[in-house]
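hey so i finally got around to running both of the ones u sent me last week. sorry it took forever, my laptop kept dying halfway thru and i had to restart like 3 times lol. anyway pasting them below in the order u listed, first the sequence line then the structure token line for each. didnt double check formatting much so if smth looks off just lmk and ill redo it

first one:
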Amino acid sequence: MKHPEREDPIRPSEPDDEARKAEDAADAAPEASPETLESAPPPEDREAALADAKDRMLRALAEVENLRRRSARELDEARKYAITGFARELLEVDDNLSRALDSVPQRAADEIGFVKTLAEGVAMTQKALAACFERHKIAKVTPEIGERFDHNRHQAMFEVESEQPPGTIAQVLQPGYVIADRLLRPALVGVAKAPATQAGEPEHPGDAPGERIDRRA
């Protein structure tokens, strides 16, 4: 006699490991309390904080860039004008060489061999000094007669009546120099002024300024 086959009771399937871990994590996570939700900043405050942080970052970057540019500019100026004091002292050497050449009579230079050789040596020395000036961007500024007086490059030593228009250069006493684009030494000049008759002074003694006297009689 055959016994009926007994069937195993149906067992509920157990969840897999990942599902069980997810459930455990969900159970372990703290629930957000009403107090926590209320303390969280609203979205508009978070956006304002983000915008403020971005603005501060851009300002910091701008300050760093300005500092870099300023440092580069100061370094460039230091390279250009580092020898300003030394160059200003060398100008006296150039002036003395010019005076030495001007003091040699042309006849003596032509007839006396020693004087001619000495004058040529001084001229060569001055030429070498001028080449050194040129390498270091030091240029001579010699004003032209009749040029307008410029207080940025010229220094007036006196005023003199001249045929030149008033306020222009009538005489050059000493040339000036510039290093790069900065004045190293102003040129010493005499400035033309209007004649006495044009400056409001009386033409004849005893005439008051502005008084008209008919002298045709």
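and the second one:
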Amino acid sequence: MRDRAYFLRSFRKFPRLFVTALPVAGISFLLAACNQSDAPETEQIRPVKVVIAQTRAVSESVVLTGRIVAEEEVNLAFPMDGRLIDRRAMVGTIVEAGEIVARLDPQIAMNTAKAAEADLAAARAVFLQADRVEKREKENYNKGILPRAQYDQIVQQLQTAQAQVEAAQARYNSAQRQVSLTELRTEVAGIVLNKGADPGEVVRAGQVIVQIARLGKKEARFEVPTRLLFIEGVSQSPPIEVALTDNPRIRVTGYIRDIGVQADAVTRAVPVRVTLPDAPDEMRYGATVTGGISISTPAMMEIPSTALTESRGDPAVWVFNTSSEQVQLRPVRVARYNPGTVIISGGLRDGERVVVAGVQSLRPGQRVKLLNTSS
């Protein structure tokens, strides 16, 4: 700018000198340079892509893989430790209620029962002797021959003997019960799904020996991602099309019966059980199935995730003003993040144009040119 001012002052003071010294082409170049420096900079108009924000119902199709299970599964176990000597129930066999499915070695329990029986017999003998003494001395006490203190002592001995009989009887009953518990019986009719031990093994109290599926309704069990459980349509138990993976033509419509309350620590999925009314015989226990569900959510605004930026650490989008052809940064509230899209719960109105490409190179009030407009 200083060179330009010096040139103009010199040109006004010595015009002829410049006209004589400079060729015409040189004067034209200098004047053009001066004119270019005075011209304002041209505003850069960036091309962008936009979508029209619209509130609409969003339908989501979900397909998950699960397996066929019984509506009720019963785990059978012994209430005590022992060595398994017999397991009659084999996987796939049908058992009836009250049927013996396994046995423990009963020898220890039988020895305990015999010892308890001997103790009971001895206690009864002591009691009978104390009872005869009490009856005989009671007559002497009534006649005044036996002092009261001695009679009270005889009565106390009788009561002690009676208590010992009751204790021995309880031990004997418990021992007999232990003998009967060496036989594992099923209380329900069903089909054997799994076995937990084989004959010859030493098992612990509570260890599952046989798992039985109660005969009746079948279910499909799925592991559902946690994010799907927050969709309102799931809680309304929509129909679920369940089909065999090996033969998709075999299918049945089911309904959600139970949703687990705790997610798996590793997969972050929640178990969901689907009731299958009139499930075909081909859907055997343990068979792999697929479950398809179409979820329709309440009306919401969904935009591409590429439109999302931030303003002071909060989610925001660029909104195109059709009258001024400029963009403004608008804070928004995000209800949910989906793969490739976001659900907006506030900050946008229907019909507004949202920039979805080129958001990182924009500034407030910048003029832009639309490459397309889509809904």
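quick thing i noticed on the 2nd:
The first strand starts at residue 46 and ends at 52.
anyway thats it, ttyl
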